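Exercise 3.2. Students should predict the tertiary structure of the chain below and write it as structure tokens, then compare their answer with the key that follows.

Predict this chain's 3D structure.
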Amino acid sequence: MPAGLTAADSMFSVREVPWHGLGSVLEQAPVTIGEAIDASGLGWRVAREPIAIDRGDVATINDWWLPRCEEIPHWWANVRQDTREVLGIVGERYRIYLQPRVIRRRRRVTAVSAVAAGST
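Answer key:
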């Protein structure tokens, strides 16, 4: 499908089915950010989880208590919590920003831009 959309993507539209035919069609626009996130199917969370490798060691009588897996320091997997899908591997400086925080920040930037545009 054009624009990289697939049947697995989620979204909503208001009163009209979009050209790609995906998502939920609502009679009226959501009032709150929470309603918009729920309607779009984006209510899932992402968490940073440690990554480990299986060393493949065979335990012996002298080291059976040693862990077979070894954590990879300074690297994590971003994991979608509802499906357990790994979305990416990130370093220690990466920060997760969930949808409500991003939407609120965009609203503030848009509001500031509108005020600045009106004052010139």
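Discussion points: Residues 46-94 form one domain. Residues 11 and 23 are 5 Å apart (CA to CA).
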